[in-house]
Amino acid sequence: MTTIAPGTxxxxxxxxxxxxxGFDGTTAPxxxxxxxxxxxxxxxxxxxxxxxxxxxxxxxxxxxxxxxxLLVAIDEESGDVTRLDVRTGSSFPGNHALGAVDDxxxxxxxxxxxxxxxxxxxxxxxxxxxxxxxxxxxxxxxGVRSFGASPDLVARHTAAWVEGLQSTGVAACTKHFPGHxxxxxxxxxxxxxxxxxxDTFYERELPPFRAAIAAGTRAVMxxxxxxxxxxxxxxxxxxxxxxxxxxxxxxxxxxxxxxxGIEMRAxxxxxxxxxxVVLAIAAGADAICVGGGLCDEDTVLGMRDxxxxxxxxxxxxxxxxxxxxxxxxxxxxxxxxxxxxxRRTDPDPHVGLVAARRALTVTRAGTAAPVTGPVYVAxxxxxxxxxxxxxxxWGVAAELERLLPGSASGTxxxxxxxxxxxxAAGGRRVxxxxxxxxxxxxMRSALDTLLAARPDTVVVEMGLPQAPPRGAPHIATxxxxxxxxxxxxxxxxxx
Length: 495
What we know:
By secondary structure, this protein is α/β, with parallel strands linked by helices. 40% of the residues lie in helices and 12% in strands. Strand 2, helix 3 and strand 3 form a beta-alpha-beta unit. It is globular.
């Protein structure tokens, strides 16, 4: 049972209820437990909170000691954006690999197994899937997180992913509404702007969200993007036109609306953190995601107090805040009522690797000899975007070193990376691992250098395979999950 803290009024409890904060550490901090007693209805887990599944299970049990229906959220897309497998790389390929296979049944099965694992750890709310249509291949933040560039393809796989995850009692959160795919700015740093007409936007960006709503998605996450054709003044997260008129009115969505990370610079750097919280709730958001960066008690108290002050001053209606808090509690009740669903789901521990193998595209040029002996794996490492982070290992080196004893590896970046890799390889066959070659001139140059000197170099592309395939052979994995690396290493040996 929830313990109501003495002296905590309904307004303050509602202000806490709409916050979904993160925290530091692998056990439940005292301040988080106190705020749960005072009305906090959700908490969020990030990579810093995860050591193992057993530890996460113990952590969620600690958190629920004060509130049995507490929503425990996580940003677990699988693929490149993983928190549950942050130390090892994901056991499931991400959206772009699933879109490349284009088997909605497989997508549903992958999401179901992911949901089963999350539920077993006590996680009940997943900020996924990404329903963004990857209209701009140079997008610095979406890329392989998208199922693809076709609205129809993205729509059918978004629906399948939502259905698979929610069959385990874990709530899905379809993102980033109204669509983050046609952006060339990362909203972690600034406000992206999409300058297309309304008809184009409706036809390209909205079908996946319509499909998710039809599939019963329990939550939708807003995007910090400016779409002048929809609202020339406010980004999506702060726009009544986008959240209330479009999402609620035109699309008929009745579930929870949660913001993308409110501390992202697109909001906090433009409007201020606490001001952004008030504007988001007033615009129609029901919950505030925070904690990817700011994860301390003072941040939570500042946002709580900003909401209370806004209601008392008349800037934010008490009814709007109460409605938002009720939607959070309704979702918490849904997850509590479906807690046993995952136990009725048969484990499918190999589905992730099966999907990764099916996603591979191998392009062979010439008659290069098969790989039979030790190799040198040269990984060309771009700067990671904030959503992916830099904690999670990626590549094929570990698997090739296991399969081909005597193999070695190194990581290279920037000008001169190709020559440095060539020197480090010595006489060994080179396996060059790249990520979004088409976006990085230095990476293209590095491959030019390697292939000119060693035409038998095997190239493994673990990002968007937009650049023309080259290498002997060229292997596209459509993502950098651990299982994608395993599948690619198998393909290297298969020639």
